[in-house]
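Proteins fold reproducibly. Take a sample protein:
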Amino acid sequence: MKDIQSQFDHRNIPIDKVGIKNLKYPITVLDRKNNIQHTVASINMYVDLPHNYKGTHMSRFVEMLHLFRPEVSLKKISVILEEMKKYLNAASANIEVTFPYFIEKQSPISKSLGLMDYVCSFLGSSDPSGKIDLVSVVVVPISSVCPCSKEISDAGAHNQRGQVMLSTRFKKFIWIEDMIELVEGTASCEVYSVLKRIDEKHVTETGYNNPKFVEDIVREVAEKLKQDSNITWFSVSAENFESIHNHSAYASITSGKEPHF
């Protein structure tokens, strides 16, 4: 059959990224406590397209990914990228794997168990020289209490739920759990899936006694990461979904360190 994608394109314009988006796929990721965890990812895959080709072969992305099933882990990303380049005859490749990751957490006082879900991503790219760039991303729900509200109010202080997005580049493998715990330690209080009344009292009082602006949170995350020699680059942002405003509060810091490949 005629291969339309491989035909010559006369416009002489190369394409930076061409591929598939939002492919739902079952994957297995490494779990610090249980060794592995099964989840379902949304995957984006792209390669470059030279100026002389009309199109790429979209079906080959799915075929190639199927060769790695079910493990699409951080450790496998570099191998997948190189196979994408070979399979699709491309100079560069990119992959974005986003998935829910579940951690069993105990409530702070009653020790009731529940599952917390965190949105995580593995981002990878391979350039024409074969250099690999890997980024790990976690989105962590948090609780914060406003320091200004506490200072100026005769009673109480407004609090809100928010989220922190942390992206990191690194020298050696890092656990998803380590990055989540680092972020949760900077909040006014952690967020839990199960809270009994004695737990609710604890988290309310803990948050009140530990007020944080979004500025405090991103600075504290940045401070911890700068002390970690394994982290070569990071970007952290905090967004509070304000309880007394019709807008969010936001802050972000990007490391000045050069990313590694």
In short: The chain is about 25% helix and 40% strand. The chain has one domain: 15-254. The mean pLDDT is 89. The CA atoms of residues 54 and 223 lie 49 Å apart.
